[in-house]
Amino acid sequence: MCYRVGIEIPTVEVRFEHLNVETEVYLGSRALPTIFNSFANIVEGSLNYLRMLPTRKKRMHILNDVSGIIKPCRMTLLLGPPGSGKTTLLLALAGKLPNNLEYSGRVTYNGHEMNEFVPQRTAAYISQHDLHLAEMTVRETLSFSARCQGTGARYEMLAELLRREKAAGIKPDPDLDVFMKAASVGGQETSVITDYILKVLGLEACADTMLGDELLRGVSGGQKKRVTTGEMLVGSAKVLLMDEISTGLDSSTTFQIMNSLKQCICILNGTAFISLLQPVPETYDLFDDIILLSDGHIVYQGPRGHVLEFFESMGFKCPERKGVADFLQEVTSRKD
Question: What pTM does this model have?
Fold first, then answer.
């Protein structure tokens, strides 16, 4: 739609080079969250600070010299067994690593270092947990998020799109035309973006329904996951870093969410890096690229269509009736 009138939507390419993340942890029974361990950790930490007792913590490497590229306008799937470092990698790319983790390496957005801009304005980390106010409707939630984050240049882009389409004699999208006319009153930029994202994510039917929780009836689990994604889409973030968003959902709902997200990425020229645990073949086929993690190392990175050929060259052949995602999970597991 934008290319017909000469509007080029900006894109963001994320690169990470020689990324290392490590920390110091207790092993065995000392790692359990008990009252005795908490008291012992406080005493031992004080003695360590005074150099009266050597630390008993062991150094653990979470990510080991990983490098890669997340390309724009494409869906990249992050696979790996539990404990392989998927969440840590997503947090590192979003600039949200906890202070207790030691970090080294280089992460760039279109060639710019993390200290040259505010990464939280460009990238959005979406957790697997849905945290919402149960009494607010879907539309109110997205509108509040848009007002807090700001819509960036997206509103101006939609206005310029309609102007150029009318000048070129191209019939504009009727829904978008109505939205922009409603916003002409002034101060309605966030309303336009909210309605636009509601349409893209297929949330128009439940836009005025309360989200709900365990005590209040509301939208379904799949719709709530779309709201979690929509909260970030209404802002100015161009990069979506999504961590295990299929938790608690059935395969059909996960496929619908991924399908809606793929359409949104294609329309808005976004960048998506998504971690899933054993997606079904239909959901797996929606992705363009694959990054496979194992014990903090990248085993494979590249197009989805070449992954089986790569592992066959290494001597691992996928059985005929086994899903590719399940095979990739097993080939990196020591038990399998």
Answer: 0.76
